[in-house]
From TrEMBL, chains A, B:
This is 3-dehydroshikimate dehydratase. Residues 20-261 form the Xylose isomerase-like TIM barrel domain. Pathway: Aromatic compound metabolism; 3,4-dihydroxybenzoate biosynthesis. Its cofactor is a divalent metal cation.
Length: 612, 612
């Protein structure tokens, strides 16, 4: 599959955009006209620069408001087109994008539009270029791809074809199936974009909320499968604009973009299935398959407050397994939950939740898949005799390691000395991680987990914090073994008040655990009395249970399938812990309780500040 | 008019919210349930605290999903309501907001809903409280205020009335006129919110985009006038949530909120007009009227780079009038454009464009209006013999001063010594200011200029910068004498690359000015050759004019009514200057050129960085 990206997707100068596209391994770019107009390089210099970088210039875009106009305007429009065709000759670009008329069309007569496109085709022929006509979702008369295809067929000119853009097709709810009826030679160009499923005017949706494939809710696998079946084998290009990418560093955005296309290729091949599509000329290959992780083998925590964290883990019933025989990290465990604990590393900045280890059937395949998805491998510091683990870095700087699944505990555990015998573990395993993402990395984080770990995205929720809304997006494996919530934290001056990361452990009996932790000196996050009064009002609570929750600061939720009990530790640095118990089939995360918890944390911080 | 504000409008703990509301002079607050639930204070403590602060607790909100349900659920709902009524008794709150059922209603039968509300009314009566029923715009069966009013009439219970919320009414496009048919005693509560005119699902619009009155596009003056005519004289309360206020500092938000209600009261009185509304019991008084400014008397610039700015002003043909006789500022002038120039003040942080002076018919009245709108007065450092000027501080920290309009130049000019005779001035006056606003202050800035200076908001535009979108909102006087563009600059890590402030001067002949400035050593911002090629493609340009534009780096725009020529200076610190010429009736700002200018500035900065 030939990959391309529109320069509008990336921030910076045109040259910065070209370099970022090259560095991420794109085959070509679309030149977005305003980027050219604003560039201090001449068209010839840009052409030479792209050649040096090994990038093809696949498309000049956009040309607007051409067809369906009166004779006077047609003449002006042809003059405009001629000057752009001359410019394309200077750039060495063969294809121009023509958007369906938004502003100046006076008629929706398809014969008229076709006749005018035929004139444009004659002009294009003289310059040796061609025109890809695209139905904008908000076109004045032409807003569907089947309509655009009809007009192109009527125009019947070798230099006039179509541009298909997944956004314009799927945002209108149009069925992409009819793509298969379009002759491949009439598809001059293809743009792909994803988007969250929003209900708003399609122009604002397009301008502010496009996403890279795999980050939104569009059915892009099916779209691509239809395209491949036509026999199209031109570039598949990204045209994404949203308020985040416009500001983000172009190098990172280009990698994210490239990952999204590799994922999309995989999705297409899955959709094509065994039948393959006999007309297919575009090669779309699957990613190495990952089989689900059998457990979260460990979570790595890096904090300066080692002593406080040790005390807290001890209070919660974790046992220290001792230090690693060669590295300065220590292992704490309880049941199947393991924390690798150390001080922050000095060589590379990492979040406090610095890494996660997954036990998978075939670590080598998992790594190969990640690398095919443009993840950077992180070699484990491997000492003699250490178990081999392989890993990659996530967009937020944390690490994901893969180890071989075994029937007993992971073999690397023995590198920390012999397990200490302890009481009956009440904590059974890591239930989920909750990781704050800087706004620049939120969608990239979703794509990374979705594509590399094959986790499924759940509907996102907004949680009201005392100082802003937190957008929370859970990704999980089908069996619920791996669950990661990514949180988009407000970037405002007071956004830092929201504690950014936490680890939630699943316990068999959270009330017993809370009680025994208290006997070991633990003080949970204080939950206000009003919360428990409100619980009583909302649910007909068993008064004995309510008293116990209140006494132990344990929060509660309930749905049709079960119950949820959970408590929080105070923060240690920028991380805190949660212990939870799922009763029956409860699969949520206590979303109704999150604002109360955030307010309690905010209150505690303000209290600590004012008494400091 | 009794004023109130929902605690959800303000960030922080409940106590921080109450203090902010008191400090801004509100009469009361609505208690938003999640704020109570998350508070560590008991209901009795909150009641006492509000009494101490002199705030009435006007409403408990929201109660949800009550009416239109089956018998089992009705019983549960009455139990829920009883526990909330008991809580309201503890808080001393008389009125509860009931939102129309979104989730659990099984029937839209108005008789059924009314019968169930009547049962709720009986229960409320026993607790000595009352219920204000509100039609949510996205209610399952009840989504209009006229429908809610019918149900309340059918319920026919003294303890059941209505809550009217301008957002739910105006977002649906419902005509507010029928408000006048509702008996005043059935209107238990009124909430007002403004919003930008967006086309999106009404729930997201409501959750993320509400604005204080005067900041959006709703016709709130008419809404209020209808309300006043009913004879309602209860609280008028703000219930606003948007992603900005949730993060902003609560004290500043509360002042902005209070200003919006004062403006709204004025609007209502204007709409009521002489007729007054005979039933009116609510007092709504007009603001002191302002008459339009006759000129921008001066702009005050505070910069460390005094020498560079002096050189630049000289190159543009400004004459130095010398230093102020007692203060360390100097005056530069040309035609009717005056710059008061000095170093940054050390006593209070100010933007580089630190102030603006307006010549108005009656400075005292202008000041009184501003103060009635909760603006803070800034006393001019008044030395013996100085002309009196009065002023206030804008939300971004800059100052607005009012001086008496005269036929000649402002009398304070003589405090700078005698005017220097110069050549023929090509610059005639200040055309507009372009002021970047931090995201926390953007809407507040709009409200300030709109209400205090009576400037009218123009449709906002988005401008693509190399590192993010800039939202630009022009406010102007009807005669075009005062024009201020507020820009919402992206807050991202790279957002600072956008130059934040500029002053635009109107010239009689911008080409001559550019030429003579060049002779004085001026170098304008360099505009790329591609831009002029594109101009040629877009407009059939006179080749001689195009050559001159290109030579002098002057940008160009055209619309049906005229032409626009303008050039930019390089930045000096965080400010730059623009000189423009309007030909014919052109009233715009060259929006199409803004991305090219922003890119050229970005390019220049990157170039300077890389050669540094």
């Amino acid at each position: 599959m030939r990959t391309s990206i529109a320069t509008v997707c990336l921030s910076g100068t045109l040259d910065e955009k070209l370099v970022a596209a090259r560095d991420a391994g794109f085959d070509g770019v679309e030149i977005f006209e305003p980027d050219l107009v604003a560039s201090s390089d001449s068209p010839e210099q840009i052409r030479t620069r792209a050649e040096e970088l090994g990038l093809s210039l696949d498309l000049y875009q956009p040309f607007r408001d051409f067809e369906g106009v009166g004779p006077d305007l047609l003449e002006q429009n042809l003059r405009r087109a001629a000057s752009k065709f001359a410019l394309m000759n200077r750039l060495g670009i063969e294809t121009m994008l023509l958007c369906s008329n938004v502003a100046t069309a006076r008629s929706g007569d398809e014969q008229l539009a076709a006749a005018q496109l035929r004139e444009l085709g004659d002009l294009a022929e003289r310059f040796g270029v061609r025109v890809a006509y695209e139905a904008l979702a908000w076109g004045r008369f032409v807003d569907g791809y089947e309509q655009a295809a009809r007009i192109v067929r009527l125009a019947d000119h070798a230099n006039i074809g179509l541009c298909l853009d997944s956004f314009h097709i799927l945002s209108k709810g149009h069925n992409p199936e009819a793509i298969e009826t379009i002759p491949a030679e009439k598809i001059f160009f293809v743009q792909v974009a994803d988007a969250p499923l929003l209900s708003m005017d399609v122009l604002s949706w397009s301008r502010h909320h496009r996403l890279f494939p795999g980050e939104g809710g569009f059915g892009l696998g099916a779209f691509m499968a239809h395209l491949v079946r036509t026999g199209y084998d031109g570039p598949v290009s990204l045209e994404i604009f949203n308020d985040t990418f416009r500001q983000a560093e172009p190098g990172a955005t280009a990698i994210e973009a490239r990952r999204s296309l590799r994922w999309l290729e995989h999705e297409a091949s899955t959709f094509l299935g065994a039948s393959g599509g006999r007309a297919a000329r575009m090669s779309v290959t699957e990613l190495p398959g990952v089989r689900p992780a059998s457990e979260v083998a460990y979570v790595e925590l890096r904090t300066e407050a080692l002593e406080d964290m040790r005390e807290l883990l001890g209070q919660l019933g974790f046992q220290s397994q001792g230090r690693h025989r060669t590295k300065s990290v220590e292992l704490w465990s309880q049941g199947g939950a393991r924390i690798v604990l150390g001080r922050p590393r000095t060589d590379a900045p990492q979040p406090t939740v610095a890494g996660i280890g997954l036990s998978v059937p075939d670590p080598g395949t998992a790594l190969r898949r990640a690398i095919e998805l443009f993840a950077n491998e992180v070699p484990r510091e491997q000492d003699a005799g250490d178990e081999p683990l392989v890993g990659v870095r996530a967009p937020d700087g944390s690490e994901v390691f893969f180890g071989a699944a075994t029937r007993t505990q992971p073999p690397w555990v023995h590198e920390f000395g012999d397990p200490v015998a302890g009481g009956t573990p009440l904590i059974e395993r890591v239930d989920h991680l909750n990781l704050a993402q800087p706004w620049q990395h939120f969608d990239a984080g979703v794509l990374f987990l979705h594509s590399v770990l094959d986790l499924q995205t759940q509907p996102s929720t907004d949680v009201a914090a005392p100082v802003g809304l937190v957008r929370s997006q859970v990704l999980r494996s089908a069996d619920g073994i791996v669950r990661i919530a990514l949180n988009l934290v407000p970037s405002g001056e007071r956004g830092e008040a929201i504690l950014p990361q936490h680890i939630a452990f699943a316990a068999s009996d959270v009330l017993s655990l809370a009680r025994s932790a208290r006997e070991r000196g633990f003080r949970p996050l204080d939950i206000p009395a009003n919360y428990f009064d409100d619980l009583q009002a909302r649910h007909a609570m068993d008064p004995l249970l309510l008293d116990e929750l209140r006494e132990l600061n344990v929060m509660y939720d309930r749905d049709e399938s079960g119950e949820f009990l959970h408590f929080y530790t105070p923060p240690i640095g920028t991380v805190f812990l949660e212990v939870l118990e799922r009763r029956g089939g409860y699969e949520g995360y206590g979303a109704l309780n999150a604002p109360v918890r955030l307010a309690a944390q905010y209150h505690q911080r303000r209290h600590a500040e004012s008494s400091a």
